[in-house]
């Protein structure tokens, strides 16, 4: 039910109002509303508020029924002995009869003409099943062949072909309407069928279904539809279509090998239209239909390839598809199979069964191959198997090949290999023989391409020669039938609809693999969904019209020539198909309701028809047969060690548990988010690791670019550590350094002794007062902060008045510029001449230490800022002292502590100071220190070469753009965010990590020549190869010739800061400006965004800054909506000089203490017998809820509570009762208000109309 279309009312009301105002009051109490259709047994119960209007309910019910005319729906209630028809302004009642509809299921539209189905293959037969299920018998199926089964099985397959996927999830009557226990037709679920039947058995199963369901009576076989013409005008209700039909004489082979068939000879590269001979004994005719679908398939024409010197080969060369190849030619021979797709797998299996000698599998790229067990595991999985889990399953079989599937060209993964996605132009070849043949050395994968042929020799492009070759089988792919576009006058495909017409539907099996999660390797579930969607649109044409006119049908479109010149418009990839299904399921409540059972049924039928024992028995029998026959034929030595089947029942059981664990967080996140009522496009989301997201903007104007080779101060970005400061028991040192002008020591302090070898200055507060004191016992002079002198004396256990004499008192400003002797001699003569002097800055406080702070600019943010202002170091790194390597260990610049980790070296540094009589005090102090916010481990500040974007010069533009936006609450914009912008500093956008988007800068060794790459196409020109992934392990090997004679340019090591990526979301997600320009310009700037208060300096900031001044040759990346605030603004200002959003809501935070109170209240409800379940208590620390701290309740507990009578609005158990929560009394009426929560959760699915 489309409850999301009914507005939920929660406004505050003044129940003390009188007069006209009292008449405006309404009840927001929940009520279960029962809708009854007179004369039927159907009852629909809905959770509604009493204040819900009849008009609102009409619109929601109309959407549920496929957007029928809501004016036709009326509601009647019984009042005493009479009946009243409710008006649209009336409120709903508890029980109402519904008039104007016959069922709570969408009604089927009646057309004046029958339906047409072109193609009697898998999808054509499936369409007929759906029509017959609904007792719609006015349809005709047309097919060129004289049998059902389609081109793929009747012609593309050969006599040896077997189904690669499990029959359980493939069979044509797949679906709970046709294949379920108790259904007799076709025997119901195919529990007795083979797991992987042969080609003849598959055709037999098509014929069985056609006979059992009476489909043959609707078939016009041996008929070629030559053209389809529109009768009437597009989008008019009275339009129809004329199918021009020509009887033909199909010619099929029943034996393997021999010459081409007649229509194969007549076919063009475009396809088979017109290639079949006309049957002159029958007349051509025209068939008129109101709706039609065409199922052309995609396994049509073998991709033609002719080798240089093919006539010199002196062997057998043929295409490894259709009935063309006589496999007797491979017996005892060396065979080359050219290609690595699904048909390759069939040819490997066939050659192995016929007894070849050796196989060379020559391919441009090694594609992923799927073992039998992995295919079954994917097809039964609910929810889908993650990409990482799939690769780990494949890895078991790939060990036999000595190859890691994680290293495949089609795999993109993170460094930890916990996430992975696939992008492969061909689908999985499925079978176990591939791995067994590789393990025995019977098959070798040669990643190369064929250059030419000579006598029994194949010359490869790498220079390698494959000699003594007897057979070449061409398996380089299949081309779609381009004549399909011509027959249908197809200009483009909108979703799955020809020219955007909802009455003309087409889908071919989508090509390739583009996924991070895998739900199926079989056509069964997908075909069921396609036909279901097609028929729903036919049945509910008014829904399409209303959704389209409202602008909600944002379906993908495909034109001929995309991505390859020979690609027809009807031929789509998996992304297009998934996007279509997802979009329509979101915008159509009626269709969405139909699809709720898909995953559970798939899991059921896979285990019912092919349980694990049956699967493993069949797989092991096939494996053992190969072992036996290969030894018998001499292909493998008889005494060769037996190779056990790599998958066991115990392993599969472990993977079921692993699958649950791996997918738990993904599925739990989705379940909880959807249960909360938050709309997120999980099925059609973009991923920041995708190439299309990483590739981005090129512009010749460069008013702003990266500042060259600057310094970042911290190993993690400020956004990461802003919440990560913890108290730490740290070492506290006082030491004395000799002042050259005062003949005195200055008493400085630190809590990080390891930074002392890098000391370049001392800092005092110019406004504080300082003393020079002299020890009466030793005569030693110290300079200390006056405000900290008593504390210093207590620390060193001295009496300030008795043991010391005060010589003078001065302000800190008077000490500025005084030079001192370096504490260590490691960098004497290496630092700039301005080093080792006293500096002044107001950040020095009286709260800790001696009021004299040691400065190591390589390891402190304030240290760096102060020393940079004083000229002790330069912005390009000149003068910087940095003796720490990437592991946090001392380098050879500090030989006394070489190789020691900085924290381990603290002890030796203190010992050295003590021996030199420079150490005054060694103690400990609780100190606020930055920690990693995830692992709670201390961090170190460390200067590293970095790349910056100039932000300081754009502050005024940032503020001006921010003033154009509207924030709720306004004080966040006017105070917190405004203050941040006024002090905005240059933004470090580089990070020294492995996983991330590489900065696209290729530089010379001296950094004097820099080339910035602006697109994949430009990088491919330099690389001389296709680049499918932009992560560093795919591009770091690319070198660019210098234009200035500086040798080869190499890419810089850094990757982009994820906050730079997050600010690029508006354009990166749409691949702007490479494509989606119109879509981007329509949607930018965003009308509304929202994030939490703690995100103010993150995402919003990057968005704002990227929009202002255009950046040449930069790379746009991805959105991770995690911290979110200031970073949006930076990118918005720099790219478009405008704010990236118009309105912003800053969310508050629910603290853990409130969650504990909720748990207590739920337990009070249970004690009073009003609920069965409670919310489990959690840690009430008053902090923001955190996964790490686990200080939050399980959201499912809250939902379980809301499901119970107390939350559903049942008053029976609450009459005359009161509940006490602490000192406050919660009466029945107030409890009843909580009941609206359940209703609100359901309505907050934010389906926006």
Automatic annotation (TrEMBL):
Enzyme Commission number, as recorded: 6.1.1.5
Catalytic activity: tRNA(Ile) + L-isoleucine + ATP = L-isoleucyl-tRNA(Ile) + AMP + diphosphate
Segment forming the signal sequence: none
InterPro entries xref list: aa-tRNA-synth_Ia, FAD/NAD-bd_sf, Ile-tRNA-ligase, Ile-tRNA-ligase_type2, Rossmann-like_a/b/a_fold, Val/Leu/Ile-tRNA-synth_edit
Domain Aminoacyl-tRNA synthetase class Ia: 659-1152
Keywords, in A-Z order: Aminoacyl-tRNA synthetase, ATP-binding, Ligase, Nucleotide-binding, Protein biosynthesis
Keyword Transmembrane helix: no
Iron keyword on record: no
A Pfam family recorded for this sequence: tRNA-synt_1
Protein name: isoleucine--tRNA ligase
Organism: Durusdinium trenchii
């Amino acid at each position: 039910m489309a409850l999301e279309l009914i507005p939920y009312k929660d406004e505050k009301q003044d129940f003390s109002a009188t007069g006209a105002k009292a008449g405006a009051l309404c009840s927001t109490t929940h009520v279960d509303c029962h809708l009854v259709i007179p004369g039927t047994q159907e009852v629909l119960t809905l959770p509604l508020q009493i204040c819900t209007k009849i008009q609102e309910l009409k619109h929601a019910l109309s959407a549920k029924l496929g957007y029928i005319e809501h004016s036709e729906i009326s509601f009647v209630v019984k009042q005493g002995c009479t009946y009243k028809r409710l008006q649209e302004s009336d409120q709903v009642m508890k029980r109402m009869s519904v008039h104007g509809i016959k069922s709570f299921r969408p009604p089927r539209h009646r057309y004046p003409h029958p339906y047409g189905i072109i193609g009697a293959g898998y999808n054509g037969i499936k369409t007929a099943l759906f029509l017959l299920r609904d007792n719609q018998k006015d349809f005709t199926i047309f097919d060129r062949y004289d049998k059902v089964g389609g081109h793929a099985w009747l012609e593309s397959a050969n006599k040896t072909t077997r189904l690669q996927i499990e029959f359980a999830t493939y069979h044509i009557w797949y679906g709970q309407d046709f294949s379920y226990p108790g259904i007799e037709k076709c025997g119901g679920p195919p529990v007795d069928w083979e797991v992987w039947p042969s080609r003849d058995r598959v055709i037999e199963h098509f014929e069985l279904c056609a006979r059992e369901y009476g489909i043959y009576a609707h078939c016009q076989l041996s008929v070629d539809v030559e053209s389809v013409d529109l009768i009437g005008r597009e989008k008019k209700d009275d339009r129809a279509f004329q199918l021009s039909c020509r009887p033909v004489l199909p010619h099929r082979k029943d034996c393997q090998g021999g010459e081409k068939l007649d229509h194969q000879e007549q076919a063009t590269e475009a396809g088979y239209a017109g290639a079949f001979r006309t049957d002159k004994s029958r007349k051509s005719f025209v068939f008129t239909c109101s709706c039609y679908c065409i199922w052309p398939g995609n396994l049509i024409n073998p991709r033609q390839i002719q080798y240089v010197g093919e006539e010199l080969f002196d062997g057998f060369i043929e295409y490894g598809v259709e009935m063309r190849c006589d496999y007797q030619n491979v017996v005892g021979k060396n065979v080359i199979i050219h290609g690595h797709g699904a048909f390759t797998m069939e040819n490997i299996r066939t050659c192995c069964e016929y007894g070849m000698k050796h196989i060379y599998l020559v391919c441009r790229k090694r594609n992923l191959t799927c073992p039998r067990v992995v295919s079954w595991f994917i097809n039964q999985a609910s929810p889908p198997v993650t990409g990482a889990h799939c690769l780990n399953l494949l890895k078991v079989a790939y060990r036999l090949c000595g190859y890691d599937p994680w290293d495949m060209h089609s795999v993109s993964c993170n460094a930890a290999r916990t996430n992975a996605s696939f992008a492969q132009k061909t689908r999985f070849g499925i079978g176990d023989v591939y791995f067994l043949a590789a393990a025995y050395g019977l098959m070798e994968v040669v990643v190369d391409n064929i250059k030419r042929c000579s006598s029994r020799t194949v010359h490869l492009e790498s220079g390698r020669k494959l000699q003594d070759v007897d057979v070449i089988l061409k398996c380089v792919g299949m081309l779609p039938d381009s004549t399909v576009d011509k027959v249908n006058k197809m200009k483009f495909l909108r979703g799955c609809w020809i020219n955007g017409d909802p009455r003309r539907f087409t889908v071919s099996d989508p090509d390739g693999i583009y996924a991070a999660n895998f739900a199926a390797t079989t056509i069964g579930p997908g075909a069921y969904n396609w036909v279901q969607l097609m028929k729903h649109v036919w049945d509910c044409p008014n829904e399409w019209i209303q959704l389209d006119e409202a602008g909600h049908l944002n379906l993908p479109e495909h034109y001929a020539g995309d991505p390859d010149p020979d690609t027809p418009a009807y031929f789509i990839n998996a992304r297009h198909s998934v996007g279509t299904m997802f979009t329509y399921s979101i915008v159509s409540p009626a269709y969405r309701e139909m699809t709720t059972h898909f995953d559970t049924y798939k899991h059921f039928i896979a285990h019912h028809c092919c349980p694990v024992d049956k699967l493993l028995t069949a797989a092991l029998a096939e494996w053992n047969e190969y072992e036996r026959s290969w030894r018998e034929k001499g292909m493998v030595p008889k005494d060769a060690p037996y190779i056990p089947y790599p998958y066991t029942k115990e392993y599969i059981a472990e993977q079921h548990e692993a699958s649950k664990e791996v997918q738990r967080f993904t599925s739990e996140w989705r379940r909880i988010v959807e249960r909360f009522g938050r709309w997120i496009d999980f099925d059609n989301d973009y991923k920041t690791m995708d190439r299309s997201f990483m590739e981005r903007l090129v512009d010749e104007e460069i008013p702003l670019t990266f500042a060259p080779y600057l310094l970042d101060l911290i190993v993690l970005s400020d956004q990461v550590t802003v919440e990560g400061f913890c108290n730490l028991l740290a070492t506290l040192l006082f030491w004395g350094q000799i002042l050259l002008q005062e003949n005195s020591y200055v008493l400085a302090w630190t809590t990080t002794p390891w930074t002392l070898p890098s000391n370049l200055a001392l800092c005092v507060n110019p406004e504080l007062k300082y003393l020079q004191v002299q020890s009466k016992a030793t005569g030693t002079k110290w300079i200390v902060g006056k405000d900290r002198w008593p504390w210093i004396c207590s620390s060193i256990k001295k009496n300030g008045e008795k043991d010391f004499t005060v010589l003078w008192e001065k302000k800190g400003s008077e000490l500025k510029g005084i030079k001192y002797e370096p504490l260590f001699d490691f960098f004497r003569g290496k630092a700039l001449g301005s080093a080792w002097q006293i500096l002044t800055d107001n950040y020095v406080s009286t709260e800790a230490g001696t009021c004299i702070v040691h400065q190591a600019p390589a390891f402190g943010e304030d240290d760096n800022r102060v020393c940079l202002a004083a000229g002790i170091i330069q912005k390009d790194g000149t003068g910087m002292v940095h003796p720490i390597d990437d592991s946090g260990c001392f380098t050879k610049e500090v030989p006394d502590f070489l190789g020691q980790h900085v924290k381990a070296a603290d002890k030796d540094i203190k010992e050295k100071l003590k021996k030199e009589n420079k150490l005054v005090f060694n103690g400990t102090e609780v100190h606020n220190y930055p920690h990693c916010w995830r692992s709670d481990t201390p961090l170190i500040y460390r200067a590293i070469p970095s790349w910056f974007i100039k932000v300081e010069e754009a502050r005024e533009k940032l503020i001006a753009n921010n003033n154009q936006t509207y924030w709720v609450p306004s004080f966040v914009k006017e105070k917190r965010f405004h203050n941040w912008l006024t002090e905005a500093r240059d933004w470090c956008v580089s990070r020294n990590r492995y996983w991330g988007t590489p900065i696209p800068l290729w530089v010379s060794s001296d950094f004097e020549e820099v080339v910035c790459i602006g697109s994949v196409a430009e990088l491919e020109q330099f690389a001389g190869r296709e680049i499918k992934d932009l992560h560093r392990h795919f591009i770091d090997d690319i070198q660019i010739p210098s234009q200035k004679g500086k040798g080869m340019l190499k890419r810089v090591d850094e990757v982009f800061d994820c906050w730079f990526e997050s600010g690029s979301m508006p354009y990166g997600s749409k691949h702007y400006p490479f494509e989606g320009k119109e879509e981007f310009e329509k949607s930018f700037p965003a009308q509304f965004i929202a994030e939490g208060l703690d995100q103010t300096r993150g995402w919003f900031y990057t968005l704002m800054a990227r929009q202002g001044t255009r950046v040449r040759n930069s790379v746009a990346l991805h959105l991770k909506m995690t911290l979110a605030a200031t970073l949006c603004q930076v990118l918005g200002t720099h790219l478009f000089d405008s704010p990236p959003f118009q309105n912003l809501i800053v969310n508050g935070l629910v603290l853990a203490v409130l969650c504990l109170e909720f748990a207590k209240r739920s337990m009070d409800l249970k004690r009073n017998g009003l609920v069965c379940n409670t919310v489990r208590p959690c840690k009430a620390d008053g902090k923001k809820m955190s996964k790490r701290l686990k200080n939050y309740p399980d959201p499912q507990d809250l939902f379980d509570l809301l499901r119970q009578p107390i939350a559903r609005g049942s008053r029976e158990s609450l009459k005359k009762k009161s509940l006490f929560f602490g000192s406050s009394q919660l009466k029945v009426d107030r409890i009843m208000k909580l009941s609206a929560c359940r209703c609100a959760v359901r309505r907050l699915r934010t389906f926006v109309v």
